[in-house]
Amino acid sequence: MPKIDLAKVPVRTGTNYPDPHAAAVRDRQWQGIGDAGFLTALGVNLCTIPPGVWSSQMHVHTHEDEFVIVLSGTARVVTDCGDYTLGPGDMAAFPADGEAHHLRNEGTEPLVFLVASSRDSQDGCVCPGIDMKVGPDNIYLHEDGTPY
Questions:
Q1: What pLDDT, on a 0 to 100 scale, did the predictor assign at position 2?
Q2: DSSP code of 6?
């Protein structure tokens, strides 16, 4: 496999979240580094989060572990067990069925980080506190199972 040329990896923006949950994350950007390297069991994304934007809604994966390393900027990590800050070189890990979490850029500079996760075909997410979940079919539902 040749070196991955980041300039050739498409930049994607936005979210699949239904309204009203899309607004906080709509301006996030990411590049599928794992896809560019033809990885099938490991997802790797280079994420850029502008000031005032979140990486995601608070969520916990049902089957996937996640690992984050901040490259530049400052992340406020919000979890259901407390908040903390990550700066360049800092790392965090989120096991499947562990803490609900997300990253917020409350600074004035873009937040850039790598996130890696296992690619489990059975994975879904639960978003506590906002009445939203999504299964492996990528269909967003209310907690009672009715679709958005």
A1: 79
A2: G
Give the number of C-alpha atoms closer than 13 A to the C-alpha of residue 93, restricted to the C-beta side: 3
Read off the amino acid at residue 132: M
* Model confidence at 139: pLDDT above 70: yes
Query: Is residue 123 classed exposed, middle or buried when 0-12, 13-18 and 19+ CB atoms within 10 A define those classes?
Result: middle
Sequence-separated contacts (24+) of 94-99 with Cβ below 8 Å: 94/60, 94/61, 94/65, 94/66, 94/67, 94/68, 95/65, 96/60, 96/61, 96/62, 96/63, 96/64, 96/65, 96/120, 96/123, 97/60, 97/61, 97/62, 98/60, 99/60
pLDDT tens string 96-115: 999 999 999 999 999 999 99
With a CB cutoff of 8 Å and minimum separation 6, the contacts of 20 are none
Q: According to DSSP H, which parts of 13-115 are helical?
A: 33-36
Residues 6 or more apart whose CB falls under 8 angstroms from that of 34 comprise 42, 43, 44, 45, 116
